[in-house]
Amino acid sequence: MDYVAISHLRWGFVYQRPQHLLSRCAHDHRVFYWEEPTYGSETARIDVFRPSFNLFVITPRLPNGLSDAEDCEAQKKMLDQFLSEQEISEFVGWYYSPTGLGFSRHLKPALTVYDCMDELSGFRGAPPGLRKAEAELFERAAMVFAGGRSLYESKKKTHSNTHLFPSSIDRAHFAKARSQAQDPSDQAAIPRPRLGYCGVIDERIDLELIAGIAKMRPDWHIVMVGPVVKINEDDLPRAANIHYLGAKDYKELPAYLAGWDVGLLPFALNESTRYISPTKTPEYLAAGLRAVSSPIADVVTPYGELDLVRIAATPEQFVQEIEFSLQPEQSDAQANESWRTQVDAFLASNSWDSTWSRMHTLISAALPNGCCESLEELRVDEEVAGAGSSSI
Question: Does the domain spanning 171-347 belong to CATH 3.40.50.720?
Answer without folding.
Answer: no
